[in-house]
Specification:
Layout (H helix, E strand, L loop, with lengths): L14 H19 L14 H5 L12 H6 L6 H12 L8 H7 L6 H5 L6 H15 L4 H13 L3 H17 L4 H6 L6 H9 L5 H5 L5 E2 L7 E5 L4 H5 L1 H13 L2 E4 L9 H5 L3 H18 L3 E4 L2 H7 L2 H4 L7 H10 E3 H7 L13 E6 L2 H4 L6 H8 L4 E4 L14 H4 L1 H18 L3 E4 L2 H11 L5 E2 L1 H10 L7
Parallel strand pairs: 2-3, 2-4, 4-5, 6-7, 6-8, 8-9
Antiparallel strand pairs: 1-3
Bound molecules: iron/sulfur cluster (SF4) (2 copies).
Length: 468
């Protein structure tokens, strides 16, 4: 791995490009207004005014994980924006290098945090990925692998069925399996990555249900709806139970509708726009019927997408207003809990531990939620919070990235693990199941890893945190 490199003019687009771009600006805009979107189709191509916001200064480069890995301009935010501009002008096709460099982007949004010009790379990427999914044929193997992911992960019943096989596999897995996997041909590396991310499976947890209604303890503050999620509910069911307990202990009625399904986040981040819009509509209808004041989410990636339903369905005359109203109610669980801290109802017991908090990208960068989880953790007596070097750099999980791009994800995972080790913390907490799986792969058994609500739940109940 190469070290993170500072932005330099040498690695950026040439001055020639800048002047050429300036000269062509007027006719390009006229082309766009007349409906010519270059290599993009006409369904929400990356907006020219968003592309124009980038002044190519390069301040985002040091925080971009892929630039940190390879030092390649086209694997930096600036380079990807440059590619989008070229595609917008029809100078390059979407197939080939364009798709390769966009596919390599983690969608971590560290560049959005770093950009002093307020470039909305998140919106640019969200407009670009569906263009690729619609217009670029993928290889058979790539297509099949992606279909397998999206045929399994968004479906709780299928995940539960798969958990039976997973539990059996883990029980019978031969000691020589790692050596056998290492010998598999490189083209099967995605399958190997998938295998290595399998969490310890508890069939009992996988088939357990989150209570549909849990009354508030003591005086009621309000009625909170709760997203139970797909992977979260099946493989991290204890996190959901802890979430219900802490919200109820802090005075919220908690409603977790049984009929809710996947929020569509995994698909949305992969450019599967139509499929995700359909899931969004279904979830909005479920929570409208639940008549809740807010919708609490304990998965960073899901919360980030649900806050964007308003934009996703903005063109839909039936759903636009309903989606905007839904998104306005979505809060990360740490936001709900932090709001209650000034008037906290649930006494905490001591947990003597040095805790390192890992900011999930979709919480820190995408939702700008950094202080609330830390405030909640600091409300636990005995907890000492320590900060992580290179906290802004993604761990390599990024939704399904660690399955699609296992080599880059592996480099980032090892880098994150080294940084965590260096803190000497007793415990790692992070608010995203994907991050937990990814980091666990590189720190297996070295320290316990929990969702923040699990630590708070243990403190409120006066029990030892899981794994400690
Ligand atoms: S995205 Fe922002 S920080 Fe990065 S090059 Fe463009 S203007 Fe500069
Ligand atoms: S989203 Fe992350 S990986 Fe993609 S360009 Fe921005 S910083 Fe780099």
């Amino acid at each position: 791995m190469t070290d993170t490199q500072p932005p330099t003019h040498e690695t950026g687009p040439s001055p020639d490009y800048t002047s050429e771009r300036g000269e062509k600006a007027a006719p390009e805009r006229a082309d766009v207004l007349s409906g010519d979107f270059g290599s993009f189709d006409d369904h929400h191509p990356p907006a020219q005014e968003l592309l124009d916001d980038c002044v190519h200064c390069g301040f985002c480069l040091p925080t971009c994980p892929t630039y940190a890995l390879w030092g390649e301009e086209m694997d930096s935010p600036r380079g990807r924006i440059y590619l989008m501009e070229m595609a917008e002008k029809g100078e390059i096709p979407l197939e080939g290098a364009f798709t390769t460099h966009i596919d390599r982007c983690l969608g971590c949004m560290a560049c959005v945090t770093a950009c002093p010009s307020g470039v909305q790379y998140d919106r640019l990427l969200e407009a670009t990925r569906p263009q690729i999914e619609r217009n670029v044929p993928r290889s058979r193997a790539d297509r099949l692998f992606r279909e397998a992911i999206f045929t399994l992960f968004p479906y709780r019943r299928r995940l539960r069925a798969a958990s039976l096989g997973g539990a059996l596999y883990q029980k019978l897995r031969p000691a020589t399996m790692d050596r056998l996997l290492a010998k598999l041909p490189r083209r099967l590396e995605r399958l190997v990555a998938m295998e290595s991310l399998l969490p310890p499976v508890s069939v009992r947890d996988a088939f357990a249900r989150t209570p549909i209604f849990t009354p508030a303890v003591g005086t009621r503050r309000g009625r909170v709806g709760m997203l139970t999620g797909c992977v979260q509910d099946v493989f991290f069911h204890q996190v959901n139970l802890a979430t219900v307990r802490v919200l109820a202990a802090e005075g919220h009625d908690v409603v977790a509708p049984a009929e809710q399904a996947c929020c569509g986040a995994l698909g949305l981040h992969a450019g599967r726009e139509e499929e995700s819009a359909e899931r969004a509509r279904a979830l909005i209808a479920v929570f409208e019927r639940a008549e809740v004041d807010v919708i609490a989410v304990n998965v960073a990636g899901c919360g980030s997408s649900m806050k964007e339903y308003g934009e996703l369905l903005a063109d839909d005359p039936v759903w636009a207003d309903r989606a905007a109203a839904f998104s306005a109610k979505v809060r990360d669980v740490s936001e709900v809990l932090a709001d209650a801290l000034a008037d906290s109802r649930a006494p905490r017991h001591r947990v003597d531990a040095t805790v390192v908090y890992h900011d999930a990208c979709h919480l820190g960068h995408a939702q700008k939620i950094r202080t609330q989880p830390r405030d909640v953790l600091r409300s636990i007596p005995g907890v000492t919070l320590t900060e992580l070097p290179e906290a802004e750099i993604c761990c390599g999980s990024a939704g399904i990235y660690n399955m699609l791009q296992p080599e880059a994800a592996g480099d980032l995972g090892r880098r994150k693990a080294d940084n965590i080790r260096g803190t000497g913390a007793d415990l790692l907490v992070t608010a995203n199941p994907g991050c937990l799986l990814q980091i666990r792969k590189y720190l297996e058994g070295e320290l316990p890893m929990l969702h923040p609500v699990q630590l708070l739940d243990a403190s409120i109940r006066g029990v030892r945190p899981p794994g400690m």
